[in-house]
Amino acid sequence: MTKNIPFSVLELALISQDNDAAETLQKTKKVAQLADSLGYKRFWLAEHHNMAHVASTATVVLIGYIAGQTQNIRVGSGGIMLPNHAPLIIAEQFGTLEILYPNRIDLGLGRAPGTDGLTAQAIRKDFFEQSQRFPQNVTALQEFLSEDNATAKVRAFPAEGTKVPIWILGSSMDSAALAAAKGLPYAFAGHFAPKQMHQAFEFYRNNFEPSEFLDAPKTMACVNAIAADTDKEAEKLSTSLTQMFLNLIRNDRRPLQPPLDSMDGIMSEEEHFHVNQMTACSFVGSKNKVAVELEQFMDYTKIDELMITSPIFDHEDKLKSIRIMKEVMDIINKK
After folding, report:
1. What totals of helices (H) and strands (E) does the chain contain, helices first?
2. What is the chain's pLDDT, residue by residue, as a tens digit (335 residues)?
3. 12, 184, 227, 246: most buried by Cβ count inside 10 Å?
4. Cβ(192)–Cβ(169) under 8 Å?
5. Rg, Å, the chain Cα set
6. What CA–CA distance (Å, rounded) separates 11 from 30?
7. What does residue 192 show for φ and ψ, rounded to 5 degrees?
8. What is the pTM of this model?
9. Residue 216 φ/ψ region, left for φ over 0, alpha for ψ in the -120 to 50 degree band, beta for the rest
10. Are 109 and 80 in contact (CB under 8 A)?
11. At how many degrees (to 10) do helices 315-333 and 21-38 cross?
12. Are strands 186-188 and 166-170 parallel, antiparallel or unpaired?
């Protein structure tokens, strides 16, 4: 097994029932500060739109805020949905962040809209065309960030030469192929679409082309992780995650719900099947249980880094889970 695998945090800034955006963003700051103090490597924020209970819509603004409230942890996007934006603007924004917080900014890029079709059209009328141009737009973004762009007629001041690290994010073979062809690190969204993860990682490694950015494949998996003192307690906390995906399937937009004693009788067989598919990469339990299961997962996937997301209703329970996951990390990496 690969030793000393870094752990990181993906945060969706989910608004819980009876909370608002202001409270949620303060809680997000506290989660980031805790992860920073515990030695987590990265803290990434996701771009979503037209979701009343997600507070990370202005992702770049929030990345700057979190970077300013932390000391060492790398802060970035998991991810920026590039078809929503002009590459020049993203280069300017992330280059500026890199200047403000040197060697602490990551730029994870995705192809999806991060929202529904109608909202995607409201963000950018030619979204579909831009999604098809994703590889070309990644290249354009790289050019804007490079020193070689100094002689171009269109330049990304003050981002030029900042060399912000770019990751390709995805949940399919298309993203794996692009990351391999461009010689970029690859992060897979196992926390909601794990079906093709192993196949995508294998394709990426087998087809990786070394680049000026990376000389060997580099993979990261994002998974759900909910830890507590006991397996039973963690299982109860995880019912908020289950309800979140159930409501997504039902198109029932609700804030993150309180945990339940049992999910019995709440889902149909078909709903249960779909929720299980989406949450197959979830690690729920006490410290020792999660450590054993995660180590097996890492051995199987051969990942270089792990990112966790923890949709837990109560803020103190979430902070505790982050602390326990640090202990899990230490158990695994000390073997």
Report:
1. 13, 9
2. 456 899 999 999 999 999 999 999 999 999 999 999 999 999 999 999 998 899 999 999 999 999 999 999 999 999 999 999 999 999 999 999 999 999 999 999 999 888 888 988 998 889 889 999 999 999 999 999 999 999 999 999 999 999 999 999 999 999 999 999 999 999 999 999 999 999 999 999 999 999 999 999 999 999 999 999 999 999 999 999 999 999 999 988 899 999 999 999 999 999 999 999 999 999 999 999 999 999 999 999 999 999 999 999 999 999 999 999 999 999 999 87
3. 227
4. no
5. 19
6. 12
7. -140, -15
8. 0.96
9. beta
10. yes
11. 20
12. parallel
Return the closest-CA partner of residue 101 out of 148, 60, 56, 55: 60
Bridge-based pairing state of the strands 7-11 and 305-309? parallel
Q: Indicate the residue type of 129.
A: E
Instruction: Show contacts of 255-261: CB within 8 Å, 24+ apart.
Output: 255/14, 255/15, 255/16, 255/17, 255/18, 255/19, 255/52, 255/53, 256/14, 256/15, 256/16, 256/17, 256/53, 256/311, 256/313, 257/16, 257/17, 257/313, 258/17, 258/313, 259/313, 260/236, 261/236
Helix (H, G, I), strand (E, B) or coil at 86: coil
Please report, to the nearest 10 degrees, the dihedral formed by the alpha carbons of residues 297, 302, 307, 310 taken in order.
-10
Report d(CA 84, CA 81) in Å as an integer: 6
* Residue 139 amino acid letter: T
**What is the distance between the alpha carbons of residues 314 and 47, in angstroms, rounded to a whole number?**
23
| Dist. CA 244–CA 252, nearest whole Å | 9
